[in-house]
Give the backbone structure.
Amino acid sequence: MQRVYNFAAGPSTLPLEVLKKAQEEFLDFAGTGMSVTEISHRDKNYEAIVRDAENLVRELLNVPDDYCVIFVQGGASTQFAAVPLNLMHNGVADYIVTGNFAKKAYEEGKIYGTANKIGDSSDKVYTYIPELSSLKYTEGADYLHITSNNTIFGTRYPEFPKCKAPLVADMSSEIFSREINVADFGVIYAGAQKNLAPAGVTIVIAKRSLIQDPLKICPTMLKWSVQDANGSLYNTPPAFSIYMADLVLKNLKEKGGVKAMNEADEYKAGLLYDFIDNSKLFKNNVVKKYRSIMNVPFVTGSEELDAKFIAEAKKAGLVSLKGHRLVGGMRASIYNAMPVEGVKALIQFMKKFEVENG
Ligand SMILES: *Cc1c(COP(=O)(O)O)cnc(C)c1O
């Protein structure tokens, strides 16, 4: 077996211990004589997984009791619609557009009401987050939507906006990598395939008092209150993805939880940014205080050299380093499951490449 270091943005690398555990119990889960992919979602052995995963999310993020934690399908992109469908009672919401996913969420919001773009960093190719003190919130807005970490452009909010309207955050590419105060948010959602589990499941954490009255046109499947009342088992859930999420969450707890993970993530990102900032060949274009610790885009300044870098890195066992098609260049996604050895191996390779091509 030859495992590589996988820098993909999502689906992305998972902890090796978790993959091994899943492999080990794949044919016979918990003495049932069945695979976890074969068990009824109403079986008590399966329901125990869902409850355990929910409880671990609550424990690891210190989720207050008046918030629900639900597991839903359709990826983060479906939540772009679920947000207005559950919350847009006054028909108006604010959006800050800091990247491609933020823009998609904003465009989806426009389908259901007035979506006001109160911040936008597209003028500088989304290399920064708009200054929070300059934002003008709409009076009576149902919510403010932000994308806390911008996967494609490699930015994150160092701190979060404070406004009267509930704050809704898409945390797909950074959930469990930083400590947050859940009570500062109305809703947090995250597709699992970046920093948690295989694709197929999305976590929604929502303040229950906000979600009791979804719009009339809201499909039942998208009603967070319905998913909450049914403990994420309203219909057949993405059973295997939730099982994997549970294993990753257990692993995260063993490793010291979100605080320990954040320290490790800051350390890994620091190593990579330090190297890039001192390099004569590689450059990261993000304004320093907004740099993501999860997604690190970089360029050489030559498309030809970028392509050569990506091809040679792959031969060296460092894969999926191609940047998103919107920005080009390279991007190293260094999520929780990327070991520090992987980041060090990447830096060693970049050093060598620089000497040979600089
Ligand atoms: C990947 C990603 C999405 C889209 O997720 P899907 O699960 O593919 O719908 C949305 N928001 C952010 C921040 C992402 O990184």
